[in-house]
Structure formats: C-alpha cells, structure tokens
Design brief:
heterodimer, A: alpha+beta, 10-stranded mixed beta sheet, two-stranded antiparallel ribbon, B: 226 residues, alpha/beta, Rossmann fold, 6-stranded mixed beta sheet, 4-stranded antiparallel beta sheet, globular
C-alpha cells in the first residue's frame, strides 16, 4: 500500500509540474489573446518571455497610429511584483476600444488615482472585492472592480499612474497594434520592421505560439529536474519496498525453490508485482493530480494554474514503471540467488 | 518393471565450511532404497540425516560420492538441472509444512503443478488422492484456517501432485499432536501401499519410524545400521 502511494506521489509530481507549466502557458496565451490586438511590439533587444523595464518611447504609439492600415495602438507598462506576478498599466479608453473592454463581476473601472482593478482569480486568492483595500508597490489601493479573467493581466491600473510610480513617465513596456483587416497583418509587420529596425515585432499568432514551455527560460530544465527527482523517489521507494518484501518472503522463496522454481520464475513473480504496483500507483497519481489542481485553484488561483494533462498519463506511468522495475532489479536478483536451504530455515 | 534400486548412495560425503572450520556432515554414507519402499531414517540431531535429505532432494550438491535417483546421477548435474529435477523427480514434506500463506490449499497444490509446467486441470487420479488424504473439502481454505494435520496433508498432496519418483519427508509429524501424527503417518503408509509411492522419511522418533518397512540409523554422518 505504501509503495502504491509513493509511486502515486511520483506520478503526481510529474503530472502536476507538467500540468502547471501547460496551465500557466495557456493562461498567458489566453490573456494575450484577450487583448484583441493583431501585432505586438517589444522594446529594443528584449526577450519575448521576459518582463522588461519600460524603454519604448510612448510617442511611438501616436506614430504607429499614423501608419497605413493601423487603426489603433495601445501601449502598456508592466511592473513585476513579487514572484512571477505583475501589475499592468494601460490606457483604459483605448484598451477598451481594442479589446471590447473588461467584463466586470463586481464594481467598475478606476475613477481615482488610488484605484485598481483585479481579475477574479487575483481577487479570490487575496480575498478582495470591489471596495477592498490592498497594498501593492508600497502603496494602499482601493479595488474599484473585479473583472472576468483572460484579459491582459491580473492587476490593472491606469497607465499614467503606473508610469509615475515606477519613474517611467513617457515610457512603455510593450505596444499592442490593431490593423484594419487581418490580411494586412503581415504587410504591416514587414513595413514596421523596415522602419523600426531592431524592435521585436510579432503578429499575435506568433506571440501565442512563442509562449511555450521551450521558450520560457529555465522551464524545460525545471520540469526535467522535477521529473528526475520523482524518478529517484519512485526508484528508492520501490527498491526499499521490494527489498523488504524479498526479506519478508525469504521462506516463501525457499518453498518455491524447493518446488523447482527457477530464478526466472522467482524474478517473474517480483516483476509482475512491481508492474501491478506501478499501474495502481499511476492510477493513484492521476487521482492525486486532480487533488493538487483543486488545491491550486482554491488556494493560489492567481499565481498558478494547473491543467489536467491526459496526454502525459501514459508517459508518467511509463516513467514510474521504469523506475519501479529498476528499483526491483537488485531485490529480484537477491531473491533469485537465495539458497533454498537457508531460505527454508529463515524465521 | 525396473528392478534397480530407486535410490543408490555410495560413499557420500558433505563438508560445510563454517567460518574457518570444515564441518563433516556426511562421512561416506552408503544407502540403497528399493522402488516402492517406505524407508525411515532415524538419528539424533547432528547425525547428518537432514543433510542427506537435502542432497537426495537436490537442494544442495554433495562434496563427493555418488547419488543416483531413478537412474539419474545427481553428482554430475548442474544447479539448473537440480532445479529441474526438483520439479518432478522428488517431492518434499517438511516439518513446518511450508505452505505459501497467501494461497489457498488448492492454489498451494496448483502452484507445484504450474512450476512443473503441468496442466492445471486435476486428473481423476489426483482427485482420488485428495479424497485419500481427506482434504477434498478444505481446499478453498488458506493455511491459517487449517489445523496442523490438515496443513501437513495439503503439503503431502503438493509433494505428490507431479508424481515424483520419491517422496522425501523431513520430520513430517514433528509439529503435530499424536492424533494428527497418526493421521499423517497413516496417509503416508496408504500412499505407499495403494499407490506404490517410494517414501524416505527422516525422524528421530522410533514409533514414527515404525511406520516404514525398514529403518536405517545414522550417527556422526554415517549410516550405522540398516
């Protein structure tokens, strides 16, 4: 039973970390999609997946709106908070025109200089409602509204206020551009690239495809480390479990050997048992991954997002099985080499 | 009918290495057992009778000498061949029954057939043996639900399920009260008389030994009287 739970935890670790990475990537994609833009411009020399300081001159927004086929350009400032969260400053009027506006579950947009809006996950995680007070960037803020998630960011406030607070007056972190017709996206990008040399300029489709595990710095390595650790845990648990099982069953192994059981027969029994442990452990692990998802969505929905990843069930199961078989190899070898007379006299 | 003895032991010696000391467990044992014979081997602790049991059963090799069972010379076979020999040539009955605790009585018997590579289906003759042993109605029980006598009868059924040439019984009544001892010994004698099963029984009890046709005495690793 302990072995099944341990293998289950091993599988849960794998499914949770993969589910978290996929969930958070999908969450980012959804929020980027919710902006409603066609083109995305980053500061000179910046990386698409990293939060950067605001270094784009905001006069570029007005210039962009004068370019052929461009109907709207919206700049924003992104200020990192603790961990992986951030606060975004935006021109609410222009952003509403581009995205169709925030859908408020409670309250409405900021009216005063000390007001912000938060999405429902941030509100749930921090127990906030319209009218609540919260501390961000060393200031007290009043939550004027709680909006439906999937749009731009979790915490949003007026652009000018965030620019002043972060000493980025006249500067932007990124610019979203909307064009008159989707067929003009590529020509506009080509035109902008020729005029804005060195600026990373992407279509939103490119941006969404670039938001991936492989493009997130360190994420692939992190997933690899967690999976490696879970394999080690599974290996050690099965090793100890099988080692103990072989010791406890020394006499039974002796009986089987007295009956003429070959080493292959004995190892076969252990491997079958290991296989069953891995199968049941994997099922338990899949069940546990629903529990971790529930915990994450209940406790930290704004910071983390976990997907259930059925395509990883067979992979995690196979990895757990490989670790378990590896763990049972030495105990199996010991069992096969048991001297039947010594084994029969084992108490 | 083969008139040659089913067990022939000549100058059998076994030396164990215990630490840096050589222990001479058998010192030139000579023994011959006829087909269909029920032989009792009697001797005190340390006389070498268990070592003889282990060598005849192919559980351990001899140091020197010759052991021929049913025409097969055990001194010339490998470990793997000894393992194969235990499947069909010999059947064991131990003092502590040695049933697998997680299996039912029936499965304890079936696993011996499975290991020997035999069909799991019971033939009519085997059903008759089960009735003879008086355990036909107890086969679905786990060993812990059986009395010592019943467990030993299941162990006997397991030992003969593959039709071995010889049945080796090591103190088969050592853990039983007198009533169950009588029952088990009667079963062994019936198997010998009705089915012609060759039996070699080790005991230190003269009364138990009297169930055999013949008794040999061992002392200090040798057969001293036959």
């Amino acid at each position: 039973m302990l072995s099944i739970v341990a293998i289950g935890l091993e599988v849960t670790m794998m499914l949770t970390i993969v589910g978290l990475s996929q969930g958070m990537i999908a969450d980012s994609q959804q929020r980027a999609r919710g902006v409603g833009a066609d083109i995305y411009i980053r500061p000179l020399g910046s990386n698409i997946m990293s939060l950067s300081t605001a270094s784009i001159n905001e006069r570029l927004v007005a210039w962009l709106e004068k370019q052929p086929h461009v109907t709207l350009a919206v700049g924003s400032v992104v200020q990192p908070l603790q961990g992986i969260s951030s606060v975004t400053g935006i021109d609410f009027d222009k952003f509403n025109r581009m995205s169709g506006g925030f859908r408020y579950r409670e309250g409405g947009p900021p009216r005063a200089a000390n007001e912000i809006i938060v999405d429902r996950y941030y509100a749930r995680q921090n127990n906030l409602h319209a009218g609540s007070m919260t501390k961000l960037l060393n200031r007290e803020w009043r939550v004027s509204g709680v909006f439906e998630d999937g749009k731009l960011a979790r915490v949003v406030l007026p652009l000018r206020i965030l620019q002043e607070l972060t000493s980025n007056t006249g500067k932007l972190s990124q610019i979203y551009v909307k064009v008159d017709n989707s067929s003009n996206v590529r020509p506009v990008i080509d035109d902008l690239k020729s005029k804005l040399a060195g600026y990373p300029i992407y279509s939103m489709e490119e941006l969404l495809s670039l938001i991936s595990v492989n493009n997130t710095p360190g994420l692939s390595a992190f997933i690899g480390v967690i999976i490696g650790l879970s394999i080690v845990v599974g290996f050690l648990v099965v090793f100890l479990s099988m080692y103990t099982a072989v010791l406890e069953r020394t006499r039974e192994i002796g009986i089987l050997k007295a009956l003429g059981a070959t080493p292959v027969f004995i190892i076969g029994i252990l491997l079958r048992e290991t296989f069953l442990l891995a199968v049941f452990g994997s099922l338990v692990g899949i069940g546990f991954s629903y529990v971790t998802r529930w915990l994450i969505m209940t406790l930290v929905p704004a910071s983390l997002s976990q997907y259930i990843v059925p395509d990883w069930w067979p992979i995690a199961g196979a990895i757990a099985l490989a670790g378990a078989l590896l763990g049972s190899a030495y105990p199996g070898w010991r069992a096969a080499r048991q001297d039947p007379i010594e084994a029969l006299s084992y108490e | 009918m083969n008139s040659r003895p089913i067990i022939e032991v000549r100058d059998l010696r076994k030396i164990y290495r215990v630490g840096e000391v050589d222990v001479h467990a058998l010192r030139g044992v000579q023994l011959s057992v006829e087909r269909g014979e029920f032989l009792s081997v009697v001797g005190p602790s340390g006389s070498g009778k268990s070592t003889l049991f282990h060598i005849l059963g192919g559980l351990t090799p001899a140091t020197s000498g010759e052991v021929v069972i049913d025409g097969r010379d055990l001194s010339k076979i490998s470990d793997a061949e000894r393992t194969a020999m235990r499947k069909r040539l010999v059947g064991f009955v131990f003092q502590k029954y040695n049933l697998l605790p997680t299996l039912s009585a029936a499965d304890n018997i079936r696993i011996a057939r499975h290991i020997a590579g035999r069909d799991q289906a019971e033939d009519p003759k085997f059903r008759e043996i089960l009735e003879l042993l008086g355990i036909g109605h107890r086969l679905d029980h786990k060993p812990r639900a059986l009395s010592g006598g019943e467990q030993q009868r299941v162990a006997i059924a397991r030992a003969i399920v593959n039709g071995p040439a010889i049945l080796l019984a090591d103190e088969p009544t050592g853990n039983l009260d007198s009533r169950n001892s009588e029952a088990v010994l009667s079963v062994l004698r019936d198997l010998n008389e009705r089915l012609g099963q060759t039996i070699l029984m080790i005991t230190h009890d003269a009364h138990v030994a009297s169930y055999g046709h013949r008794t040999v005495h061992m002392l200090d690793g040798q057969v001293v009287s036959a």
